[in-house]
Amino acid sequence: MAFAVWKVGGSLFDLPDLADRLFRLHANYEPRLPTVIIPGGGLFADAVRQIDQVHRLDPRHSHHLALDAMRLSASLVAGMFQLQPVKDVSQQLADIEAFQRGSEPPSIQVWDVIDSWNTLLPQVETICGSIPSDWRLTSDAIAGGLAALWGAERFVLVKSIDRPALRDWQACAEEGAVDEVFPDIAPHLPNIKWVNLRAQ
Question: Which residues contact 172 (CB under 8 A, 6 or more apart)?
Fold first, then answer.
């Protein structure tokens, strides 16, 4: 059996009915698939970026602060579903095996993937190539790289905007619709969908 990974943009966190919209999206698009939600950094990452602009932090320091922002987002979004975020690397790998065996019922889970990212990055780079540790990398590529490593059948970018028309991923990155690293990740994902959740 397969599973889906959704990267949910932090720009959607201001929607008061975000959880309801995600439930409806799952019912309409993925009712038979276990679905892992990886939230973006949102306002928490924006705060780190603003502080970085003031203090000119070491790029690796600001990168790790931005990763911590994704942890806060995972806790925030999991709370909207009255869940706890799945954080443990071993638990996440066990869940993926269960998804693939078909022993896990279709459901929505919210994962804090930062420990997985830090642990599995060398394996992701084996598939996707060298990945920078600075502001060129955001949750788009982190979620996509892990989805590629895990063998997700579908990867969904849940955004606040429509995908720029007739644009390849490199052009999308140049317009700021995805991060700069995502065009290197995308070829390793078998099935990418884009959803403008704010418009639904």
Answer: 163, 164, 178, 182, 183
C-alpha–C-alpha distance, residues 7 and 4, integer Å? 10
Contacts of 70 (CB under 8 A, 6+ apart): 38, 39, 40, 41, 44, 45, 112, 113, 114, 139, 142
Q: E-strand spans in the chain?
A: 4-8, 35-39, 108-110, 154-159, 192-196
Is it the case that residue 93 has pLDDT exceeding 70?
yes
Alpha-carbon distance of 33 to 3, in angstroms, equals 5
Which residue type sits at 110?
V
Q: 5, 113 in Cβ contact below 8 A?
A: no
Q: What are phi and psi of 157, to 5 degrees?
A: -90, 110
H or E element: which one contains 195? strand 192-196
**Paired tokens of 53:** 């602009």
pTM of the model: 0.95
Phi, psi of 37 (to 5 degrees): -95, 130
3-state secondary structure of 28: helix
Taking only the tens place, the pLDDT of each residue in 135-193 is 999 999 999 999 999 999 999 999 999 998 878 999 999 999 999 999 999 999 999 99
